[in-house]
Write a structure and sequence with these properties.
By secondary structure, the chain is of the alpha/beta class. Helices cover 35% and strands 15% of the residues. It is built from 12 helices and 7 strands. The chain has a 7-stranded mixed sheet with strand order 3-2-1-4-5-7-6. Helix 3 crosses helix 4. It is globular. The protein starts with a helix and ends with a strand.
Length: 303
């Protein structure tokens, strides 16, 4: 999206942390922690910064993260580069709202179901999706979880942590996720993860989800056009981490073509976050890009 479009809509209120919309049912404590992470895991600071302070610039998308501002302060992390990248800040806030809406709808139908954040980083979705009876699992690479555990310990008995390497097959069983067809459906969130994996590994991740998940399960994942692969150096926030985009889609229908049980239930473009000018530009670019420049897909599991 044009930089001018994002900047015209910027609102800069005083620099103070946004209050939470309401008290969560589970609480966390935040001890001081600093760490050095490899390129891909270090991208976790990008959404953390956007959720902590993005409401200053895009108040209509403010997610009111009650945890992120304190995490950044206690980590003593310099995130000024991300906050100068207003496109990315908007994209993270738009994505967060869309995942919140998907999660609330899922748990309204399955109030005792399990939610899993694959590649959770320092995101705390349970603050928004705690319905009082549902369960939650946050999982990421061991080096990320070593950072997360002291900063964000499981806040209540219905939540837990686990180490996870999605590049290794068998992750579904290692996480102890249900495999019986009669089991309660599971909600998976996978944001800011798959675009850094080679295509074959992405296919394996989605195939493993499709093979094992109970009917009615959902996965919400972010996707980008294949034309963005190899272009991380042009991304104002990601290029500073050294990470690279390795996977994208030529068309959204490719996702459900990866396994017979996969169904593409919904596709969303970040163009929605820019209003009608963004939607118009998305329609203009789509024949060339083949898919949203950046967006979300909701995959479901059939019988």
């Amino acid at each position: 999206m044009p930089q001018s479009l994002a900047r015209r809509r910027v609102v800069r209120p005083p620099r103070s942390a946004a209050p939470a919309e309401g008290a969560t049912r589970c609480t966390v404590s935040l001890p001081l922690q600093r760490a050095q992470l490899p390129p891909v895991p270090s991208t976790l600071l990008i959404p953390l910064a956007a959720r902590a302070h993005g409401g200053r610039y895009f108040p209509w998308l403010d997610c009111h993260d009650a945890v992120a501002p304190a995490l950044l302060a206690q980590m003593d992390a310099d995130v000024s580069g991300t906050l100068d990248d207003l496109h990315t800040v908007l994209h993270v806030l738009w994505r967060t709202r869309a995942i919140q809406e998907a999660g609330r709808a899922f748990f309204a139908t399955h109030p005792q179901a399990l939610g899993v954040n694959l590649g959770c980083g320092l995101t705390h979705y349970f603050q928004w999706l705690d319905g009082g009876a549902n369960q939650w699992l946050d999982a990421d690479l061991p080096e990320v979880m070593a950072l997360r555990r002291p900063l964000l310990p499981p806040p209540c008995p219905r939540t837990r942590h686990a180490d996870l390497d999605l590049s290794q097959p068998g992750w579904w069983q290692r996480l102890g996720l249900p495999t019986q067809r009669s089991a309660t459906p599971v909600l998976l969130v996978c944001e800011g993860v798959l675009m850094y994996l080679p295509p074959a590994q992405v296919h394996a991740v989605l195939a493993e989800f499709a093979q094992h998940a109970p009917p009615g399960s959902r996965m919400v994942l972010d996707v980008m056009t294949r034309r963005a692969v190899g272009c991380a150096a042009r991304h104002a926030s990601v290029r500073a981490t050294g990470a690279e985009f390795r996977w994208g889609v030529g068309r959204m229908a490719e996702l459900e073509a990866m396994h017979p049980r996969l169904q593409l239930l919904r596709e969303q473009s970040v163009a929605e976050g820019y209003g009608w000018p963004g939607i118009a530009m998305d329609l203009l670019w789509r024949p060339w890009l083949g898919a949203p420049l950046y967006g979300l897909a909701t995959l479901g599991i059939g019988e």
